[in-house]
Specification:
Blueprint: H1 3-14, E1 17-24, H2 30-40, H3 46-58, H4 74-79, E2 86-92, E3 95-101, H5 109-116, E4 121-127, H6 134-145, E5 150-156, H7 165-182, E6 186-191, H8 215-221, E7 235-236, E8 239-241, E9 253-257, E10 262-264, E11 268-272, E12 276-285, E13 288-290, E14 292-294, E15 298-303, E16 314-317, E17 324-334, E18 340-341, E19 345-350, E20 353-367, E21 372-375, E22 379-380, E23 385-397, E24 409-413, E25 420-426
Helix pairs in contact: 5-6, 6-7
Amino acid sequence: MSTSTEQLTEQLAATTLLRFATAGSVDDGKSTLVGRLLHDSKSVLVDQLEAVEHASRSRGQEAPDLALLTDGLRAEREQGITIDVAYRYFATPRRRFILADTPGHVQYTRNMVTGASTAELAVVLVDARNGVVEQTRRHAAVAALLRVPHVVLAVNKMDLVEYREPVFAAIAEEFTTYASELGVPEITAIPISALAGDNVVEPSANMDWYGGPTVLEHLETVPVSHDLTACHARFPVQYVIRPQTAEHPDYRGYAGQIAAGAFRVGEEITVLPSGKTSTIAGIDALGESVDIAWAPQSVTIRLADDIDISRGDLLAPSGDAPATTQDIEATVCHVADRALAVGQRVLLKHTTRTVKAIVKEIPSRLTLDDLSQHPNPGQLVTNDIGRVVVRTAEPLALDAYADSRRTGSFLLIDPADGTTLAAGMAGESFATAKAVAVVEDEEGWDF
């Protein structure tokens, strides 16, 4: 390994960031867990805590309701539920965190998709009194679809079942079996009481039969992969910089954020979808020239050759460039209030590129309860997850979502008003699922 790569790896290991999301059924205690996590890790400001205490007293509660630390919308406070995704940023001496507290109601499943789409870990809560319910399976399936690499099963409200180990063991076994069938690579079960603080930040004296980590300890120690050699390097061009000044008369740089992997000066790259090749002549980051840059840095890349490159083009190493295609088969989560139908004209946004497209087919809709496929539904409505076949007007360089969550994902947009219709994941759906057979459509399409 080169010296520059060694320094890069050491720098990444010194301060890591973990993005994680919480999910679970209604009233399983997600917001209370998040509030307890923030409170007990000393991540709550004094004025925030005072505001929560005041709001709790006004509702007739003696103890502060820690759920109010995340439930910020008026409707959420009035109904005692989470509606929108609430993001919180906090840190401990060992790691920095970005937390997404997602809703539990079925009608807000699309919000869970939003929160978990960038998460490296998902905490799925279960009420120890109710066990694994339909929404628990739904959230486990969404986490599997989004390829979240780590899932924590937090069996909450153990204080209400007298901290009994058999209750926890039965729930953990049922959930682990289900999630493993979906292809979730790592599942960790932790018995907790978010209200009392058991096993959230501090170990519980009430569950001496449990010898595993607390929730915070697991969050601090779960491995976050920064293996640069395992990443497919991808650089979507966002902007072309041509100052044409006396100081920089011939400067031409391609600015954007590295989506995955690393780029080095002297490396041969391919420009997609044109297929033209060149060599990286220089990389500018924060006003300085560097020899190497990596995701998710925002940089400007200069090439040795003068090539026609514009916003939406993708730079990739010539030996590891993705294939371009106009026919995309993917799993989509429908997030709009209006339906997505066969034959519908849409815009497809992939990284920095937006192209016209037509929905050719909707081969199946997924039933998350038993993972069965409902064939040829004709359309997808709010919160539906299904397989689609889309034909684009121009070639796109997509990776499989299983290989790259950044360059294997896309959005389907209504061209009339810009509404996001669906979030898509190219390639196979579940890690262990077989591909849905798609029948070729011989009808005449415009593209």
